[in-house]
């Protein structure tokens, strides 16, 4: 199987996975306690108004008709209106997705940058430094994201008051657009604590794998040959050992992306970050079924697409990969 065939097969698998997740979302939300009809239709409304709202939301239709309408909405990305916010679900999520990707992307970028660098140094400089790094990495990996977020919020937000305790920007701040807001000092000030809550946990995976790979590569023939040719230790470390140890790091991406999505839901809720994760929690608590289903599906798509991209990236950077 060639590269094009492999890409087509992985793309088809991703589409099937999204379909299965969409079906599960439909079933699970119908099994949840609470009556969506009672949530959407207030008893105080006139009966004719209730009937019109039931028709609009499709709440008075048989289950199989609701499923067909739901799958059609998934394909067309038209998820209807939110029960409580009274605006299209798609518009709500489109305003939130950029905030979520920005928070998650910043955390992952810093985690991989620091994780691979520190892991490589720990393997190259054995001794007390390596021991401290190894203990710290295990500690980071064992620390729940929500616990660290609460500790940082209390210490640096409430007690020391060095950083804001929530939201993306100050309430009274006004910006001309998304980019204007993102590149403001106000936004960066609000970003610090949420990112610091996630980076240590995400960083542990690439750090430990980088260290292990570097230790294995140290005994390879090409490292011995580089030393024999008189190559400086710094160049052997950077150009030979570290570079060849980066390939396995890509394999951790699907795992870390999945953890990042789950962690982001908690961090966004704790810091009142206006992202998809916080929107999902609010929608579930309010039994806002259209919004909750769409938010769940969007989060699942982020994970599935992240895995797909990681698979393709690994085949690109490692020419030894076969497409069987």
Can you put this structure into words, describing what you see?
It is globular and about 85 Å long. The longest helix is centred in the N-terminal third of the chain and has 36 residues, at 89-124. The protein starts with a helix and ends in a 7-residue tail after the last helix. It has helices at residues 3-31, 36-40, 47-57, 63-76, 89-124, 128-142, 145-159, 178-182, 185-217, 221-228, 233-245, 253-270, 276-285, 289-317. It has 324 residues and is mainly α. It has 14 helices and no strands. It folds into 2 domains: 3-76, no CATH class; 97-274, MetI-like fold. The mean pLDDT is 81.
Oligomer: single chain
Give a short account of the largest sheet.
none
- How many runs of DSSP E, i.e. beta strands? 0
Low-confidence stretches: none
Q: Tally the helices: what do you get? A: 14
How many domain regions?
A: 2
Structural class: mainly alpha
What is the name of the CATH topology of the largest domain?
Answer: MetI-like fold
As a percent range, the share of strand residues is: under 5%
Q: Note the overall shape.
A: globular
End-to-end C-alpha gap:
6 Å
Q: What is the helix content? A: over 70%
CATH-level-2 architecture of the largest domain: Orthogonal Bundle
Mean pLDDT across residues: 81
**CATH uppermost class of the largest domain:** Mainly Alpha
Transmembrane segments: 12-32, 101-124, 145-167, 187-208, 246-271, 291-314
Pfam families: BPD_transp_1 (PF00528), BPD_transp_1_N (PF19300)
Family: Belongs to the binding-protein-dependent transport system permease family.
Subcellular location: Cell membrane
């Amino acid at each position: 199987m060639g590269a094009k065939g492999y890409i087509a097969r992985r793309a088809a698998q991703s589409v099937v996975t999204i379909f299965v997740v969409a079906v599960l979302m439909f079933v699970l939300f119908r099994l949840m306690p609470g009556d969506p009809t009672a949530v959407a239709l207030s008893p105080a409304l006139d009966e004719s108004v209730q009937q019109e709202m039931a028709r609009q939301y499709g709440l008075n239709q048989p289950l199989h008709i609701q499923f067909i309408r739901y799958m059609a909405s998934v394909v067309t990305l038209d998820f209807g209106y939110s029960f409580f916010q009274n605006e299209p679900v798609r518009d709500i999520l489109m305003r939130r997705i950029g905030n979520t990707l920005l928070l998650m992307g910043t955390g992952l970028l810093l985690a991989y940058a620091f994780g691979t660098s520190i892991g490589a140094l720990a393997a190259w400089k054995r001794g007390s430094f390596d021991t401290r790094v190894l203990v710290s990495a295990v500690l980071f990996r064992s620390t729940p994201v929500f616990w660290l977020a609460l500790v940082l919020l209390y210490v640096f937000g409430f007690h020391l008051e060095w950083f804001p305790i929530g939201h993306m920007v100050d309430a009274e701040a006004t910006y001309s657009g998304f980019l204007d807001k993102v590149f403001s000092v106000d936004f960066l000030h609000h970003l610090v604590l949420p990112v610091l809550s996630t980076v240590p946990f995400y960083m542990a995976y690439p750090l430990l794998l980088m260290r292990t790979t570097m230790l294995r590569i140290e005994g390879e023939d090409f490292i011995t040959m580089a030393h024999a040719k008189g190559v400086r230790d710094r160049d052997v470390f950077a150009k030979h050992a570290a570079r060849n140890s980066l390939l396995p790091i890509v394999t951790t991406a699907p795992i870390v992306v999945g953890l990042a999505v789950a962690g982001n839901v908690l961090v966004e809720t704790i810091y009142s970050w206006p992202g998809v994760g916080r929107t999902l929690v609010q929608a579930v608590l309010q039994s806002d079924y259209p919004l909750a289903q769409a938010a769940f599906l969007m989060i699942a798509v982020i994970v599935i697409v992240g895995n797909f991209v990681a698979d393709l990236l690994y085949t690109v950077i490692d020419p030894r990969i076969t497409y069987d």
